[in-house]
Amino acid sequence: MENQKNRLKILTAHEIEALYGLPKFTEEEREHYFFLSPPEQKEVENLRTIPSKSHFILLLGYFKAKKVFFILDSEKIMDDIYYVHHRYFSEIQPFPIIQVTDPTRLTQQACILKLLGYQNCTQEIKEKLYENALHFATIFTKPIYIFKELVSYLESRCIVVPSYSFFQDVVGKALTEEMNRLGMAIMRSTSVKIRSELDNLLETE
User: Fold this and answer.
1) β-sheet bridge partners, residue 119
2) pLDDT truncated to tens, each residue of the chain (205 aa)?
3) 34, 192 Cβ separation under 8 angstroms
4) Rounded to an integer, what distance in angstroms lies between the CA atom of residue 58 and that of residue 87?
5) pTM of the shown model
6) What Cα–Cα distance (Å) separates residue 44 from each residue in 36, 57, 58, 125?
7) What is the rounded CA–CA span in Å between residue 74 and residue 140?
């Protein structure tokens, strides 16, 4: 993978935060995103501990909002933890600490994908995204437009959006390939005489 400093810039810092940043819910948004449908409620009931149940509800709510999974840090989401605890587990004391093992977190993610009809972005899908990027690079010269087309492709198929660095690499590579293609096309279409004159001009300079 390329060094972060050398990667293509597609989005502003604000746009990256809007797409990938942890949601900061209002009270109304908490009521919406942390509401549990009957199938979701059933999954929560199948979990054994309050921390695990709370973690699942939070992870589910954040995924509904962003279609991205987060590794939760209790200190950064205390208001949301309090809301979930008060709404679903108010009779339980003390206040739960949201901490689960990696296997538990991954199991919950897989359950959430199944509940909401989503799938992870597999290697096969990433290869298809690169093919799409090559196509859109023949149409658009600005990286942001290619990026938006790729995200639209994922959203229309209920696929989890991969990391920003993935898009930087794929779009950057596609644009480079297109530039090389155009350069070769120009060389092939330029007569031998003109190429010779250009070479002589460059040697003179």
Assistant:
1) 159
2) 445 567 899 999 999 999 999 999 999 999 999 999 999 999 999 998 888 999 999 999 999 999 999 999 988 999 999 999 999 988 776 666 778 899 999 999 999 999 999 999 999 999 999 999 999 999 998 999 999 999 999 999 999 999 999 999 999 999 999 888 887 777 666 665 566 666 666 665 4
3) no
4) 12
5) 0.82
6) 9, 8, 11, 30
7) 42
